[in-house]
Every structure is written in C-alpha cells, then in structure tokens.
Queue: 3 jobs
Job 1
Amino acid sequence: MTPITLDFSNMVMEHLGVRGVDSERLGGDLADRFRVAHESVEAIRRSGEMGFFELPYDSDALAQAQELADQIEGRFENLVIIGMGGSALGARTLRDALLGSLWNERSNEERAGRPRMYILDNVDPGAVLDVVEYLDLRRTLFNVVSKSGSTAETMALYLVLEGLLIEELGKENVGEHFVFTTDPENGALRSIAEAEGINSLPIPGNVGGRFSVLSPVGLFPAALAGVDAAALLGGAARADEYCRTPVLGENAAGLMATLLHVAHSELGASIHVLMPYSERLRSFSFWFQQLWAESLGKAHDRSGNVVHTGPTPLPAVGVTDQHAQVQLFMEGPLDKVVIFVALTGTQRDMKIGGHRASVPSVAYLGDHTLGQLMDAERRATAEALRRNGRANMTFEIEYLDASTLGELFMLMSVATIYAGALYDVNPLDQQGVEMGKQLTYGLMGREGYDPPERSDPDVRWRLERG
Amino acid sequence: MTPITLDFSNMVMEHLGVRGVDSERLGGDLADRFRVAHESVEAIRRSGEMGFFELPYDSDALAQAQELADQIEGRFENLVIIGMGGSALGARTLRDALLGSLWNERSNEERAGRPRMYILDNVDPGAVLDVVEYLDLRRTLFNVVSKSGSTAETMALYLVLEGLLIEELGKENVGEHFVFTTDPENGALRSIAEAEGINSLPIPGNVGGRFSVLSPVGLFPAALAGVDAAALLGGAARADEYCRTPVLGENAAGLMATLLHVAHSELGASIHVLMPYSERLRSFSFWFQQLWAESLGKAHDRSGNVVHTGPTPLPAVGVTDQHAQVQLFMEGPLDKVVIFVALTGTQRDMKIGGHRASVPSVAYLGDHTLGQLMDAERRATAEALRRNGRANMTFEIEYLDASTLGELFMLMSVATIYAGALYDVNPLDQQGVEMGKQLTYGLMGREGYDPPERSDPDVRWRLERG
C-alpha cells in the first residue's frame, strides 16, 4: 500500500518565482513554526478535547455500527440520511466516492441487495417531496443524525417524516424505520431513543459534526451500503500515523497546513481551491469546504483578539472546471492556491478509438485513452498555473477505495487542526452561526426568543419599476 | 406574472453602516457610471457581437429545436449530453431546476415517456464507465455539444461512445443516436454532420458557450424533456426588456452589476456568493459561477493594461450551507457579498406536525411548515449577516418554472455584460485557458505541438518519508 504523497514543487520559489515560498524556510522558520503548532496540537490531543484523533482506533464504534448494519441488512431498499453539514457531507462523500454516481439508479440485484442512499440536508419542502413522494416509505430506513439531538432542520425533517410514517404504517410500526446517530447521553433524540427503544448509535461527546465522518455518522451508512468500514478506519489510522511527526518535511498534513497558511498570510492567497481530478471525489471537495471554512473562519484568535480571519475554500473538479473556473485561476487576482488530487495508479480506462483519424482536429486523440487525456490535462493545468505564477500542489493517491478515502479524510482533518494552530484560532467551535439560530427561533416563535426587531431604518431599498 | 425583483437594503450604509454603499450615490456617480456602462453595452449590442441578446427572440432556433425534439420523441429512454462548461451547465440547471433531483430514477411512465437526462462533462473514465455500463445504449441518444466542434474532451468522449455504438449496433445504425449542437458552418462536428446526415442544431456564431443556454444548447434538451422551451424564452425576453433601461434604480441587472462591482473595487468584497434558498436552484449557482468567473477573471483590461482582475464567484445553497459556509461568511474576512435568491410565492409545502409537542427542544416547530422554517432561516441569515456588517442582497422570485428560470438566466447574463463594462474587461473571451490547451496537445502528441519542456529546476519538492 503506497501512502498518499504530496508534490509541492509549484509552491516554492525555485519553480514559482517571487510568488513562491523560499524553500530554505522549510528547514528553517516554517519548520520551527510547525513544530510549535504540532506541540500545541499534541497537548490538546492528550487533553482528550479532540476525540476525532481516536476514531481510527475505536473498534467498539466500528463493531456497533457494523452489527446494527448486519442486523438490518436486507430489510430496507432505501436509506435516507437526515442531517445537516457534517452530519450529511461525509455520508454523501462515501456514497459518491465508493458507490459511484448511479448507485441509486441500479436495481436491487445490481446493488447486491444493499440500499439506495439519499441525503436530506435541506428543509426545502420541494426537495423533500421529490424524495418522499418517490420512495416507498415502507421499504425505507431513516438515519437521523444530529450530535446535539436538537438541530432545528434535522428535527423538523424528522417530525415531518415520522408524521408521514405514522399515517402510512400506524404508530406502533414506525420506530423500526429509524436509527438515530446522536450524543451518547444528551439531547432529544437520545431521550426518544431510550424511551421508545429506537435503534441508536453514539457520536462521542468530544467529536464535533465536521470531524465525525469516521464515527458511526459515516460508519453506519458505509457498513449498510456494503462498504468496508474497517478499511476506512485502517486508512485513517495510517494517515494519523504518518501525520504525527513534528518534522515538517515528512508530515503531509503539516506541509499542507503550513504551505496554505504561509501562502495566505504572507502572499495574499486567501482562497484555497481543492480540485481533485476525479469525478468520484467531487463531493469530497464539499466535505473539505465545510471542514476548512467552519474550522478556520473566525472572528477571534485564541487570545480573544478580534481578527476576522480564515481562508475561503473553493471546491472544483478536474477536468470539468478547466471550462468554468480555471480562466479566473489563470488570469485573475493572485489570491488562490490550487490543491490538486491525482489518482496515479492504474485505473479502469477507456480507449478513445482511432476511427476518425481522417478528421485533422481530432486525429491526435485516437491513440490514447480517456485516462491519459485526463492525466495530460491535469499536468498541463498545473504547469500552466505555475508559468502564470499561480501556486499549486498535488496530492498523489494510487487509487480510490475505502482505505485511501479514510486516509484522505484523516489527512485533511489533521491538516485542519494544524491550520487552526497556525492561524491561532479554535478550530472546534462555530460561534458565528449562533445569531442566525437565535433570530430563526424568534421568527418561529420559540419560547424565550423574541422575533428580531425591524431593522432600522424601516425603509427598504428595492428595485424600482420604471 | 410578477417579475423578479431585488432588495438591496443590506448593501447600503443606512442598513449596513460603514461597510455599505452610500445610497445617495445610486442617484449620483454610480448612476452615471452605470449609464456609461449601459451605453457601451448598447453599442456592442447594436454591433451584433453579442448574439445572446437576440436569443429570446430567435423563433427559428426555437422551432428547429422543438421540431427535432418532436420528431425524436419517444424513441429514446436516455439522453446523454456530452459537453464541457457552458455546453453542459445550462442543461444540468434546466434538468435540476425543472425536473427535480430524482427525474432519472423515475419510471418511463412517471416521466410520461420523456427521456432520463445525463450529463457527461468530464473525461474521467470511471465516471464515463459508471454511465455507459449502466445505460442501454440502444435506447440512448447522445447530444454532442461544442461550439467549435473540436473541444478535446467533448471530441474524445464522442469518439469513445461512437466506438462503443459501432461495436454494439454496427456502423450503419450509429448516426441516428447522435444530435450535434455546434457552429452552423465550421468545425469537425459540422463537417461530420453534413457528410453523414447526422441531425444537428446550430449555435449562432456570435454566441459563446457560457451565454448559450437559451440557444439550441439548452432548448433542445429542454424540449425533449417536455419543458416548455417557449416559456423559457418568454421569461428571458421579459428580463431583457426590464434590464435594458439606462436608469440604474430600475434595472435589476444593472443594480446587481453595479453593487457587486463597487463592493469589490471600493470595499474589498472580491468574493461573490450566490446562495439560492432552493434546492432545485443548486445547479443554477454553478451555471452562474462559470459565467461570472470566466467572463470577468481577466489579465488585461480593454486597453490592454495588465490588471489581473475579477471577482471569485462562490456557489452556496440555503439552508444547507448555514451548516457549512455561513460560519466563515459571518466571522471571517469582510471579503464577501452574499446574493440570496428567495422564492416568495406559495410553494408546495409540508406540515412539520405537532406530535412531539412534549419534547421541549422541538415543541416550537410543531405549528409550522418546512417552508416557513426555510423562509425564517433565510431572513434570519440575511439579518445576522447585516448585523455583522456583511453585505448581502436578495432576488425575489414568486415561483420557479420555465418562464422564471429563463428570466433568471437572462438577468444574470445581462448583469455579466454590464459587469464586464464596469470592470473594463472583455467578458466574451477566455484567453487564460489557451496555455493549458497547448500544453495538453503537446503531452498528447498532437502534430505541431511540442511537449512542455521539463520545468527548471529539474528537482521536485516532495513529501519525504521519515
């Protein structure tokens, strides 16, 4: 098993010129800075505040998720995951990366009896109706995922669907259509599960939503869909191991965090583009976006000073975005770093075919495969960015499976924690969304919350009609 | 029919404080600046360089697309669109916005005999195999979309699929499985269509890919899927009409362009977030992303000066991204404007249900609908952003259908052209992607192109293994 590696040549001055990092610093002040960050992270790790570091080794959680999946297997045609943010993005990534884009369209036989997997992570009634009117609810299992057990949107969706199931199946038959994944002790979901004997799985108290994919939040849907959940954790453990050294040059997560932080803080690259050259990793970019944005976008530093800091993660996918975003990356402001992900091993491939060799503008394609074209375009894009002075780096993965996906999840989670230390912010909280929640409670008439006062002035600025 | 309107209160000083635009300027220098931009756009419009202005009125194109769709109707179960960037994003938006997320999973009967619609906009062999191995090719129509008729990825996919069809059906039966949408006169696809009698539709010579959704590029898939293509153009014509006034306060596209440009150039808001509160408009954000990024991200201004300018468009969707990106929007750098899209009319809705009224943390949800929760969250998010000094504006649409989607397409296309004038760049070219193409040709051994020389120095900077 070749571990994930990183080529960051196009981040250093020798390749990038003045927009690059002086490579000497990687053995100098940046190595020192990382060593300090590493130390503070190790201290927090020892304190037990960051439970996700333990997830790759949590064989109890794995066994529990696998056992429940085994017990349920074959009883449902559809799995609907109800959750917001980190409670949904991990499962979506697992589905898209490991089961492929058309999983839900395949027949029961083609899925080997494994359920289709839908994600409800929006309260848009149109979107919910699209799913609910289509699915046979009697053959559907709902996995309600909320750490707190009281997330407004998750609970609203839960109530809607429970109501529908009660109508359709009668109150006494509804419980077995639910699995709750929630805090082991607290919250409404936990109380309901215990009072009514509903199947449930624990999210450790010290694991936040966006760091939870390797907990039962991701393990249960993975196991139910037939994904090798143990391999997922095995890959994560591998990444944890090789991302634990304090030596910058040997630490993939440390290099990622350090190079992106220095590109942002010293070279003005505040936008961090994650651009896998792999259609199946498209959703992974969105999982990373939430992780990076919510962990690092902060009003205060760890001493309480107002800083309003944080890079903006921007998802992209190769080659598709060469026809959408790359024009801006090439010619626009020098405010971006592009992080490529390349699959470098032998993949399933398709021959392009030389039967149109007489057409001049396409003849050159004929002797090649789609994989070769994809690879050539990735290398050409990285090189063109470099020639335009645009920083970029490339993670290289041999192939995509449960093990390497687990490795990617862990590598990027650890990088986020190191980045938190380098940006000097708390990567575990999300104070910024509180005000919106309070205002929503007010508008929804929740007891103890006032509706927001009308904004002052009362006048609205609106388009006029001529 | 209520036209789309715009509330930009949270862009002006009276609501936003020092981070806002002085509202007096909307009747002063900004109105004047827009009038100049408007004039230059009108001049180009008259010159005939920007063909997309004529698309809403092109009844010939509509008739041709509709006729071909009618002629083909019922013969295929699947429509696969092969195209890159603007050749794919418009069709995906049409599908997701008007047919819903589970269209492809519905039975032939539920689709009233209309085809499933797949988009191949990547050369990833794994993604292509996912689709090709699953679909019955004998029941599949391929719509190959390329303005130039020589886009490398599009042509590679075309050759792959043509090869498979020849194997499966024999050479003589393959032609009827294709419709080419391409330049009316030039390019390989046009030549092949004429030589072999393959059905084809024209993209007017003066319409670029990212402005082509209202041409046969979008009209044909729409018509084939049973979408009211005439209504799409009708809505676009409506937007064209009300976005043509030189009076800033009355011009929705003008206000959007002017406010975003001033927020960027004077207030540092270089990231423009499009955040519809509608799951069905998720793909619309990606259509807009390409339009805004590729049209405005430029190395040179119109006088040829090096400027490296352009805002970075960032797609988001409400309420989902409240649990992913909004933390960063609220607390991070003051470098963003959020553009909300709200559906304000009566939509299909779902009652949340009060059967858990005894659970304190969810009792408040019971008397409401999902739509009400969605709406409360949108308003709460806009207000919380405002209180944090974060600029935002809201487009209000009564409901989503072919007509209002056409209106949105046109409004944002016109706004892009105005923004081009305000940013002083050419919104119609994309020089920045040329180098990547040349390097790809070199790597693929195309005649007349050299492979890129090895970068200098030859040394690569890579992760070391400890």
Note: Chain A touches chain B through 162 residues (CB under 8 Å).
Job 2
Amino acid sequence: MELINYFRSSASYRVRIALAIKGLAYDYTSVHLANSEHLGAAWSGTLPAALVPVLKVAVGDGDGGGGGDGGGDGGGDAVLTQSMAIIEYLDETHPEPPLLPRDPLGRARVRALAQDIACEIHPLNNLRVLRYLVRELKVSEDAKNAWYRHWVETGLATVERQLAAQPATFCHGDTPTLADCVLVPQIFNARRFEARLDHVPQTMRVFERCMALEAFSSTQPSKCPDAE
Amino acid sequence: MELINYFRSSASYRVRIALAIKGLAYDYTSVHLANSEHLGAAWSGTLPAALVPVLKVAVGDGDGGGGGDGGGDGGGDAVLTQSMAIIEYLDETHPEPPLLPRDPLGRARVRALAQDIACEIHPLNNLRVLRYLVRELKVSEDAKNAWYRHWVETGLATVERQLAAQPATFCHGDTPTLADCVLVPQIFNARRFEARLDHVPQTMRVFERCMALEAFSSTQPSKCPDAE
C-alpha cells in the first residue's frame, strides 16, 4: 500500500492513525499542499479531487472481497480517496482491531461523531477554503482566523455534548474507533490556530488518552518524514 | 421511526430517499430552518447540533444488533444524527435492497463519492455558513452566491471525473446507492442557486435516472408536507 499524503493535512493524519492501529505497513509519499504541489500536472492523474490523502492498494491483495471492479482504474492498483471511506475500507479488509463497534446503534454513533468533525468543522477550514476567503473575498488575516476558530469552537462544542452524555475511555467505548481517528487531528488543527479548548473538557480528556497510544503519537504531523 | 427534518434541507432529503428505497414508514416532523426554529429552546434537547435530519428509533425495535447502548439517551428512543451515518444504520438494520455494494472496493468508492459531496460541497453551502458570510464577513449577496456556485461547480466536477471513469446506470452499478442518495439533493441545491451544470453530463444523466424512480421523486422538497 502507498499513502499519498501531507504531514500537516488532518485528513491524512486520520488515515495514518488507522493504518497504525491496524499495524499495516505502507509507503509514505508526500505531496506539499502548502506549496500547491497537489495542483500541478504531476499529480492530476493520481489525485482526482486534488485532495489528500489517497491510498493506493494492489487489487486482489487484501481487498477481501474478490474482484477489483470497485474503486480502481482496471489496472493493478485501486486508488482510494476520502479519509473516512479509506478507514472503513481498512476496517472491512483488516477487521482486527475493529474501528467500529459491532452493534448498529454504536456504529451509527461513532460515524456521526466522526462526521460531526469531518462534515461540519474540517471542510470549512480546509486550505482551499481559507485561500478563497483571502483571495476572492478579501477577508483580513484576523477575520480569517476568527472564521477558523468559530467553526472549530462551535463544532467541538457539539462533540463535547455527545461525549459528556455518554462518557467513555475513548469517544465510544474502551478502544479507539473511527471517531478518535478523526477527533485527534482536529485538535492539532485547533491548537495551531489557537482556538479555545477549555469549553470541551471531555473531548480533551479523550484526546490526551489517545495521544498516550503509539498509534496516535507516532503518526502525528511532527513525526512525519516530510515534517518541517 | 420519526424523521425530524425540513423540506429544503438536502441532508434531510438524503435520508428521505433512503427510507423510501427501503420501503420504511416513518413519522414526518418538520423544523423550519429558514425561520431559525431549530435554534430555539423547544428543539435544544432533540437536535444536539442544531442540525437536521435526526432520526428517532425505538431501541430494540429494528436496531438489529441487540442492546441500545449505542446512540441513545438510555430511554426508549435512540436519537441518530448525521445523514450518512443514519443511512448506513438503515442499511445495516434493513439490508434489502442494499445501499452499498458487497465488495470492499466498491463500498469504498460509493462512500468516497458520497463524501465528495457531503464533505467537500455541502458543508460550505450550509445555511449557517451563508449566514456567517453575510452577517460576520459582510459579504455581498452576489459574492455569497458566487461562493455557493464555486463549491458546487468545482465539487461536482470532481464527481463527474469519477463517474466518467467508470460509467454505470447509477453512480455505481445498476441500483441506487448511498452515493445517489447524496448526489440528487445536491443537484436540487445547485439548481436553486443557478449553478452551472453543463460541465457534468454524466452526473446529470445519473440524476435524471434517479428522478425516474418513485423513491427519489416522491421525497423531493416540493412534495414534502412542509413544502412552501
């Protein structure tokens, strides 16, 4: 497997955590987002949405489902996009340790927590969105940072209410799940932009618990081969 | 089951389509988003993120997994949030007809297509985001509409490349999936804001094919009890 990613991309970090929890080896390929390397011609064939991460997997090798008519280009590799879809794929093809609970209600809760971050916070603070604010809407640096913090702080408050309603060791239960893979990178982003975090104590407790695990700490941005 | 939703909310429409494909009956409860009804005290206990849709399900009744320790409040109902998580829950508890392919690569492709819309287009054009642009950033009506169309048009171009690379009756294969449940409501939004759609012919072909089905046409915004 080859992970095409960028050390500071939080969506990339989600997948690095999942790969580490599963104990899966992979080749690490870096695309420098801040330098717009992902927008260049060299990557246009590999990154369908000019977004990272992308996971390349050899078809028939660990796809667990027979046949490669699903996500590939008909060749030897399948190119998987979207971090949550990639993590669910890893969980289906390498079930242990599981990243989703067994019961449907628990799975729904974990997916909803992940989506509370991946659909409500992160998209608003993506690099290309911040660039649009500055370049097209002529928003000041201060207003851009306030925008960033607003979505982080209000979005994490939603997560906090749900964690506080059903406290557990991790986001859900006593082992890390998809929700933790998505939460932890968001906290790194929040700190980088100096967002408030004192209003989300349950969330920060879970964050610290995760960071005590090798799978989360060894894959953090500063430990990546392309870290600056 | 009770679906708390709003006729014009595209995330709500996704779930209405899935419920219709599964042939599941439900109570329709409307929350008027445009009037900010969802932000009022009456709803604060039921809508954890002040977002719709929310699906209330009786615990032990159709959860298919025994036990209700997952998504609820410990009472008789579980409150499910986030449209894609709700649809996956419906698919797990009511497997026929399936809304995801059987093979892991196919499932990854369908989830990624859904997330290309639900994580890259829709969050940027949510009502609360448009309000922030206008109220906090003092963006003009024209600039707000240009923002809306920018994310729809570039985001759908990403979807189009993937559909064109692997053409099928629907987004993936010859039956509707989660990806179609997410795509169709996005096209309704695109049309409402007069976004360009002539650059995404495969996408529009799939859209028209979906709309020929009762599950998509009978649940569209204009057919809802609270339609204006």
Note: Chain B has two domains: 2-98, 104-216.
Job 3
Amino acid sequence: MSITLYTYFRSSAAFRVRIALALKGLSHDDIYVHLRKNEQMSKEFRDVNPQGFVPALIHNGHSISQSLAIIEYLDEVFPDPPLLPVDPLSRARVRQLACVVACDIHPINNLRVRRFLLHEFGKSENEVNGFMRHWIEEGFDALESLVRDDPQTGRFCHGDQPTLADIFLIPQIANARALDIDMERWPVLHGIEEAAYEMAAFVTAQPKSQADAE
Amino acid sequence: MSITLYTYFRSSAAFRVRIALALKGLSHDDIYVHLRKNEQMSKEFRDVNPQGFVPALIHNGHSISQSLAIIEYLDEVFPDPPLLPVDPLSRARVRQLACVVACDIHPINNLRVRRFLLHEFGKSENEVNGFMRHWIEEGFDALESLVRDDPQTGRFCHGDQPTLADIFLIPQIANARALDIDMERWPVLHGIEEAAYEMAAFVTAQPKSQADAE
C-alpha cells in the first residue's frame, strides 16, 4: 500500500484531500507542485494529470484527480472512519453541502479564473478580490441557512463527527479568511470551523503546516 | 413513491437530473422555475432550496439539491441500471470525469456568473461568450485526453453504457453547441454525444423536449 499526493500548500482542493487522508490516518509521500510557478504545466505532471491540476493521488500506481472523486475513493477503500453517513438521505445532504463549495464557490475563485480576470479582462486586484468575496459570501449565506435550519447539524455540518461536508467547508473558510472576510456573519459555520481546528487532522492538513509553505 | 423535480429547460444541471431519472425509468412531476424571470428568487422556491438554484428534487417529501448529490442519491435508492461501475478505481474514474464538468467547466459559465461579468464588470456579450468558450475548450481538451488515452472508454465515457460521466458531459456539450463551438475538435467526446442521442433517455431529457421550452 503506497499513497503519493501531488499537492501545493495553497491549493484548497489539495487541503481537502490532506484532511481526508489525516482523518483516516493514511500516510502519504507528498510531491509539491508550485502552482504560481506553473509547475502544473510540466509534461511530467501532465502525464500524472492531463488536466494539470492538483491534487492528484497515486494509489498503488493508479492515478486519480478531482478532490471529490479522490475522497469518495478513499472512503470506499479505507472506510474507517466513514466520511459519509449510512442512509441515502443523509448522504445526499452531506454531498449537497460539499457541492455548494465544490461547484458553486471554489471553481469561480481559483487561480486560473483570477488570472483570466486580471490579464484578459484587465481587472484590478481589488476588483478581482471583490468578485471572489461576492461568490464566497453568497455561498456561505446558503450554507449557513442549510446548516442552521436543520436538526441534523451538530458540532459539524452533519452530526458530531466530520464528514465530506466539513472537509470541503474548512478549506473554503481558510480562503475566505485570506480575503479578510469576517466569519462572524455565519455563526454556525464559524462554530464548525472552531470544532474542526480542535482536531489534529485539520491542523496538520492546513496550508501553513505543509513543508512547501512559504 | 413520488418524485417532484424543480427544473428549467435551459438549466444544464437540471438536464443532468432529467437524464438520470429517464435512464432509471422514474416518472416525476415537474415544476418549472423560470431562471431568466428570476422565479428562483421567490420565497416559495427558497423554502425548497435556500440556494435558489435548480434542480431541486423532492422524494417522498424530502428535498435534495445539487445535481451531483441528487444523482448519487437516485443511484443509491434506485440502483437499476447503475450509473457508477462496481470497483472503486472505476468509480473514481467516472466521478473524476463528471467533476471536470461539474467543478471546472459549468460553474464558471452559468447564468449568475454571466450576469456578474455583464453588469458588474461591464463586459460585452462577445467578451462574456469568449470567457465561456475558453473554459469549455480547456475542459474538453482535458476530457478528450482522459477518454482517448484510456482503454476503459467504450461507446460511452466508461464502457458501453452511460454513467454519471456521460450524464454530466452531454448537457455540457449542448451548452457548447449553443455557443457555436465545433465538437469536431474532440472526436471521442463527439462520438459519445452521438451514442447518447441514440438513447431515448437523452432525447427526452434535452432542453427542447421540455414542456417549458421556448
């Protein structure tokens, strides 16, 4: 059993996979891909992931990319502790919460979109940061409403143990903080963030704990 | 057993769920939410989905949103025919392909981003269409490479029957065609599109087959 993770400390999608690996106690060799230096464009890395994105995970010689696919895979192959509840409706709720981040917040705000807006559309840093804050705030408003109004929410998004939903939420909150967004506006999400960083898995997975952190 | 789908003919995320329901032979009552008239902002619909997005699916009184979460749910509750393969590595491959569309193409190109670029950033229709084409082409280049170079690809993205990957790909191709993108550049994806429209499920699920089509 060997796991290799292609990662970058700033990548919030890689942060998700690092949390999942840590929660499951899976050791891994890390290969650092410096996105701001465009190392993801190298032929060597394109052979691992033709899309040129981190994270990519190699398990016993097989390459998987896309953080959601990687984490669902890890949960199927290493089921303890589970990252999804058992019953289909609860699983749907957890996946729905994860998808708000995975599909509706993060993709609009990542490095390549940022670069397009700066260089192709000639927008200023300030304008681009405003664009990013807009989607984060809109997404967090929806998430706060979904967790606040549901008795299934506990210390974490679904019950008292972390699930796929928290694995997606916490890195997005870290991105929000990097943009000086005040989490007080979303008290339930903020409480989940506090619960998460009481666990070693979230602490060791965070960007500043990585060997490639600057 | 009752299924209600909140849908809009133009929504490519709703198109995905319509395909999944059709493949599984599940009948459903449709409620049309006209996105361009902003019906998704109504209090009535916000009570169904606080995020204000279609699709939302009600099954036996329980509401689920986010197309990926809905389709995984349908596949767990109505497993025949399966939309995911059996072994974890193949499941990861199918989810990875679906996520390229779900996370890296579609979110950057939907109505609310389009509106932001037009109205907040003052971009022209032409510029915004160029922005959309850029992400579709980049994503399709990655997808084409992933399916072309893998012997697991068959008539569909994974084998000879449609999976989650095709359910996400086909609506994105429809969006590409609406932007006059020529699919000849991606011969494998183009072949999968042709295979899909030989099946009634894809034909009945497409935008122009819907009762709310204009």
Note: The CA atoms of residues 15 and 205 of chain A lie 6 Å apart.
